[in-house]
Design goal:
It is a single chain. This protein is mainly beta. It is built from four helices and 39 strands. Strand 4 and strand 5 form a beta hairpin. It starts with 5 loop residues before the first helix and ends with a strand.
Length: 566
């Protein structure tokens, strides 16, 4: 990663009096929590609940509803980029509580600093308060015959759709022409033991379908990809399962790559697109191309999906996979950086194998600041080292030098039901997910005649958005439904001041989808429970003519809220 020293960066950004800017018209940001000491990564483990890593203290901080405690304190080597760097949750974390951590082990007991022993990934079990050691999965040890950093550690983790753990490790400054290695494309035989993305199980086993599993060296067997310099961002595309990663160039060409099985990123002979023939100190200012790389069996080279000619110190990337984001942004990629304090949003193409790029960016390279800013959606953000979608659907950003977490929220904030209770009628088909969105996925139930509560009735429950720095101006509730015979449809919102349901809509269903929208613009908080922020609504259906009662099937496609802020 091209960067000045950590402490110099702190001086630069801490003295910056400018507030952040977010150039997404439909969204705003707000401070969420502060007080961390150089945090590097975090993971959401519940509603308003996170585990936050501090690089140089080795502490894992448990943050829950605004309160923080120490869940684990590891003894870390904290020279330069070493320390506590990465976290990932087991796919079954909710039931087994397993957490993976990447950190730099030292030779001290009970304190940080000292001499570095290795970088390692270990698993721990979460008991609700503390992390308890389980197992050491993989180590990247000191090697007296090679350089040992202390920069280019990488350390970011992600979990693939296959349930395996993907581990980034930088090149550790190894593999130069004076001491060539396979992973840096400078040797056919000698192994660096670092410089790629590693794929292992949560028990430490090497999957048999790893691309280089048949190699005799376990360090190569565990590799998923190699030829990377210093990867400080990795994420799994939730739509395709593809692994995407960022890679920091030397004095040119930061990259975004799609990491397939056996991918060779080209380092140290190539950075940026092959056709650019990049020359820099590490490759002896030589015009190498993809034919000059070292290819293990099953390896392949591919160009980055995007590059910055002038490095930005690219950090984490995140897929905006949340219903809180509108279709225009949903599924796209937001990227943070180290050098200029920017945030960048890229639209993913239809095949989800690259970005939608045109004009000056059609060559997939930002050649100057003007081209770099074409995708900028935020500035003055300092050093954003991690980003994640919380369990509540909002985007959370972790800022390194100030130790802060920020939250990005929509001005028009959708809220989906979290549970329901069918009070009258017979459920024929469907689940909760069928009524969370308007997507032609229906909950179907049959009216029951002679019920005082109505021929059919459903209650839906959820939680209002957290208190906001903006002003709540309107509450909307939507019902999309149809019935094969016309029914009277009533909508009631629960009033927590009167402790009763309040009628807010009366209409008639039709045989085609019809959306009823309720709008509340005054005294909105009466429909929000003040402590738990619970909200609930009741929708009822009655025969149009009570003396001619009949049964009818009701298809309910959506029952949700929207909170409008200004």
């Amino acid at each position: 990663m091209v960067r000045v020293s950590v402490f110099l960066c702190v001086t630069i950004f801490a003295g910056n009096a400018f507030s952040q800017n977010l150039y997404l018209n439909d969204y705003y940001y707000e401070p969420y929590f502060s007080g961390f000491i150089f945090p590097t990564s975090f993971a959401c483990i519940g509603e308003e609940e996170f585990l936050v890593l501090e690089i140089h203290t080795g502490r894992v901080i448990h943050l829950k509803e605004g309160n923080k405690t120490i869940a684990l304190d590891l003894d870390v080597s904290n020279n330069a980029e070493q320390g506590l760097l990465g976290i990932a949750l087991h796919p079954n974390f909710i039931t087994n509580g397993v957490v993976a951590l990447f950190y730099s082990k030292n030779d001290q007991i009970g304190k940080d600093g000292g001499n570095w022993i290795d970088n390692r990934v270990e698993t721990f079990s979460w008991d609700g308060e503390k992390l308890n050691f389980l197992n050491t999965l993989i180590t990247f040890p000191y090697d007296p015959d090679q350089k040992n950093g202390p920069t280019h550690d990488g350390g970011k983790l992600t979990v693939g759709k296959d349930g395996h753990l993907y581990i980034t490790h930088g090149d550790f400054l190894r593999g130069g022409f004076e001491n060539p290695r396979i992973e840096m494309n400078t040797s056919e035989t000698d192994v660096a033991g670092v410089g790629g993305i590693y794929r292992i199980s949560f028990t430490g086993e090497i999957p048999r379908d790893n691309p280089f599993y048949n190699n005799s060296n376990p360090q190569i067997q565990s590799l998923y990809t190699y030829g990377l310099r210093n990867c400080f961002g990795i994420a799994t595309d939730p739509y395709t399962g593809r692994i995407w990663a960022t890679d920091n160039g030397p004095d040119q060409y930061d990259e975004v790559d799609i990491i397939g099985s056996g991918f060779n990123g080209g380092w140290l002979k190539i950075c940026g697109p092959d056709v650019r023939a990049s020359k820099y100190a590490e490759n002896n200012y030589t015009d190498y191309d993809a034919n000059d790389l070292v290819y293990l069996p099953n390896a392949y080279y591919d160009d980055p999906v995007f590059s910055w000619l002038q490095p930005i110190g690219v950090t984490q990337l995140v897929f905006l996979d949340s219903y809180k984001f509108s279709p225009q942004e949903r599924g796209n990629v937001l990227i943070g950086e180290f050098n200029y304090g920017g945030l960048y949003l890229f639209e993913v193409n239809t095949n989800r194998n690259g970005f939608v790029l045109g004009g000056a960016l059609a060559d997939k390279v930002a050649d100057n600041s003007e081209e770099r800013n074409l995708n900028k959606v935020g500035d003055n953000w300092g050093i954003i080292v991690d980003m994640t979608i919380g369990n509540d659907g909002y985007l959370y950003l972790l800022r390194f030098e100030t130790g802060e977490i920020y939250r990005i929220r929509p001005y028009q904030d959708p809220v989906i039901p979290k549970s329901f209770d069918l009070k009258a009628g017979k459920l024929v088909n469907g689940t909760l997910t069928d009524i969370q969105f308007s997507d032609d996925s229906y909950m179907i139930f049959q009216t029951m005649l002679g019920r005082a509560a109505g021929d059919a009735q459903i209650e839906v429950f959820s939680v209002a958005p957290p208190p906001s720095t903006k002003t709540l101006t309107e509450l909307q509730f939507f019902v999309e439904s149809k019935s094969f015979k016309p029914l009277v449809q009533t909508i009631e919102l629960y009033n927590y001041e009167t402790q009763k349901y309040q009628l807010v809509s009366l209409s008639t269903t039709t045989s085609s989808d019809n959306t009823t929208q309720v709008s509340i613009t005054s005294d909105i908080n009466r429909f929000i429970e003040p402590l738990t922020r619970e909200i609930k609504a009741r929708v009822s259906w009655y025969s149009v003519f009570s003396i001619l009662s009949f049964q009818s099937a009701i298809e309910l496609d959506n029952a949700s809220w929207k909170f409008i802020y200004k």
